[in-house]
Amino acid sequence: MVRTEISLFLKNVPGELGKLSSLLSETGINIDAITIQDASAYVQTLFQARGKSLKRIASSASYNSMRKDSSDFALIRLLVDKTDAAVTLLETHDYLFDTVQVIAVKLENRPGELAKITNKFGEAGININYVYGSVSSPEEKCLFVFCPEDIQLASKIFNG
Fold this sequence. Notes:
Blueprint: E1 2-11, H1 16-26, E2 31-38, H2 41-50, H3 60-65, E3 73-80, H4 83-92, E4 97-107, H5 113-123, E5 128-134, E6 142-148, H6 151-159
Antiparallel strand pairs: 1-3, 1-4, 2-3, 4-6, 5-6
């Protein structure tokens, strides 16, 4: 299923993730998936150059290829249950962020399930820019988030 992922920068200091997650929680917004990594100075510059216009000046693939370790900022990617409300909240609180469409898939928690999905991407000739996911118990399904280079083609594969 196609979902909108929010990517944002936080200062890489104690308490920042707590502030963000509290802000979302207080507004009734649930985090469905999250990943955190070091962010590069170059990617930070690109986001700052864009300002708040939401107009992309580089492709998602370009942002991902420009990452390198940085001790000052962390790149947070998350899916939330109320994307529009989260975007408004982040704008109101002057967070630096971007949105991108991704494919979110619930998989059975057993060997080979990830292979089936990733093989579908490969058979369709779709490169995966990044993926993250988690499991909670063998009885529950896993949520995996894929950022493909071709979201339209990928959405046809998983909706068709």
